[in-house]
Specification:
By secondary structure, the protein is mainly α. It has ten helices and two strands, in the order αααααααααββα. Helix 4 runs antiparallel to helix 5, helix 5 packs antiparallel against helix 6 and helix 7 runs antiparallel to helix 9. The model has no long low-confidence stretch (mean pLDDT about 95).
Length: about 200
């Protein structure tokens, strides 16, 4: 196992510094121990940088260290983006029962329904929620009714989108984005859709 980067242990380190970002994004889940996970919790709690919080959630969500229980519960409340809520939920589900989780999932369903009205072509969010590391993982591992219902809602809303916004990307089991089309092709398909609306 590689040593934990010193720059991430320094409370005075500037998070905008390239070395800080590089160290964080080169970490993998095997680097996380009880001795160093508090540094990641501190960074997560203090940063406003969404990509850092996203990375930290994915680094931690499969670990079962007891101090992560309150962390994931807090992260479920803190995150505004549904995909990041799901990553926090993936961690929290290891410690909580379905009855503890279902209230949060109900609120997520309401938020998801609003997404369809306010941002009807938000295909990225749907793809992140449908990715291998997100809701399908939770449904397969826990088979909770609340998880199944949320995934069904995601899939139904996804299917109601125009075809121009489907099949562009997904995520793998590690949460890494996988492009299913080259970006210029995706842009062209969506541009043609919007041009058609003007006609």
């Amino acid at each position: 196992m590689d040593p934990f980067p010193e720059v991430l242990t320094d409370e005075n380190a500037k998070e905008r510094h390239p070395d800080f970002k590089k160290a964080l994004f080169e970490l993998n889940t095997e680097n996380i121990t009880t001795e160093n996970l508090n540094h990641l919790i501190r960074i997560y709690t203090n940063t406003k940088e969404i990509s850092y919080r996203n990375k930290i959630l994915k680094l931690l969500y499969d670990h079962q260290y007891p101090e992560l229980h309150p962390f994931f519960e807090m992260a479920c409340r803190k995150e505004r983006y549904l995909d990041m809520k799901v990553y926090a939920l993936r961690g929290w589900a290891q410690f909580a029962e379905e009855k503890d989780i279902s209230r949060l999932v109900d609120r997520m369903k309401i938020s998801l329904a609003k997404t369809e009205k306010t941002t009807p072509y938000n295909y990225q969010e749907y793809e992140l929620l449908r990715g291998k590391n997100a809701l399908p993982f939770l449904v397969e591992k826990y088979d909770y009714r609340s998880f199944r219902e949320l995934l069904e809602q995601v899939n139904e809303q996804y299917e109601r989108m125009p075809d121009a916004f489907k099949g562009h990307m997904t995520t793998d089991e590690y949460g890494e984005i996988v492009h299913l089309r080259v970006p210029c092709e995706s842009s062209k398909i969506m541009r043609e859709f919007f041009d058609g609306l003007k006609g």
